[in-house]
C-alpha cells in the first residue's frame, strides 16, 4: 500500500505477527468490608501500573472475589501485596 504522509508517499507492507499469550497467576485474598487484601502477587516483568490495571480488572468482575466497582488499587511490588478498595462492599 502507498500512504501519503505530509505530502510524502510511504510504501507500507502488512506482515502477520503473533501476540504473546496473556499471563495467568494465582492470588491469595482476605476480604474485609470494602477492601480486599491480596498477598503473594507474582513477580512479573510488567510495569507497576499494568499490574494495578490487571488487579483492578480481575476484581471488577462480579464472579471474581466478590467483585464490584473498584475505587482504588494500592499495589506494593516489593512486598508482593495489594489492597483493592471497592466503592461498595462486595
Automatic annotation (TrEMBL):
InterPro entries: Nmi/IFP35_dom, Nucleotide-bd_a/b_plait_sf. GO terms for cellular component: cytoplasm. It comes from the Eukaryota. Pfam families: NID (PF07292). Residues 1-71 form the NID domain. Transmembrane segments: none annotated. This is NMI protein. The gene is Nmi.
Amino acid at each position: 500500500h502507498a500512504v501519503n504522509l505530509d505530502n510524502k508517499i510511504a510504501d507500507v507492507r502488512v506482515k502477520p505477527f503473533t501476540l504473546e499469550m496473556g499471563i495467568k497467576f494465582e492470588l491469595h485474598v482476605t476480604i474485609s468490608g470494602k477492601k480486599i487484601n491480596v498477598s503473594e502477587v507474582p513477580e512479573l516483568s510488567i510495569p507497576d501500573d499494568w499490574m494495578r490495571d490487571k488487579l483492578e480488572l480481575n476484581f471488577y468482575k462480579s464472579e471474581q472475589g466478590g467483585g464490584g466497582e473498584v475505587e482504588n488499587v494500592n499495589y506494593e511490588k516489593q512486598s508482593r501485596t495489594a489492597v483493592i478498595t471497592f466503592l461498595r462492599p462486595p
